[in-house]
């Protein structure tokens, strides 16, 4: 195959994680975010609320 064991494992893990597909989808996601008309209406991230258990 002409690849090292390290590269084979890396390729397999990327396939498993969908890394290749995610990389191709990023430009579309970014464009949708930048062109979104959604508004937060004053909502702000609150670290304490996010970490409540």
**Shape by Cα distribution:** elongated
User: What kind of oligomer do you see?
Assistant: single chain
Residue stretches low in confidence (pLDDT < 50, at least 5 long) are none
Compressed to H and E, one letter per element, the order equals HHH
Q: Assign the structural class, choosing from mainly alpha, mainly beta, alpha/beta, alpha+beta, or little secondary structure.
A: mainly alpha
Number of strands: 0
Number of alpha- plus pi-helical segments: 3
Q: What Rg, in angstroms, do the CA atoms define?
A: 19 Å
Biggest sheet, in brief?
Answer: none
Helical residues, percent = 55-70%
The percent range for strand residues is under 5%
Task: Write up this protein.
The chain is mostly helical. The chain is 62% helix and 0% strand. The chain has 3 helices and no strands. The chain has helices at 5-17, 19-34, 47-50. The longest helix has 16 residues, at 19-34. 0% of the residues are buried. The model has no long low-confidence stretch (mean pLDDT 87).
Give the key terms:
53 residues; mainly alpha; 3 helices
Topology:
Layout: H1 5-17, H2 19-34, H3 47-50
Give a quick rundown of the structure.
Helix content is 62%, strand content 0%. With 53 residues, the protein is mainly alpha-helical.
């Amino acid at each position: 195959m002409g690849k090292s064991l390290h590269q084979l494992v890396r390729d397999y893990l990327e396939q498993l994680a969908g890394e290749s597909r995610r990389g191709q989808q990023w430009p579309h996601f970014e464009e949708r975010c930048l062109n979104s008309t959604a508004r937060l209406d004053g909502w702000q991230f609150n670290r304490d609320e996010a970490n409540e258990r």
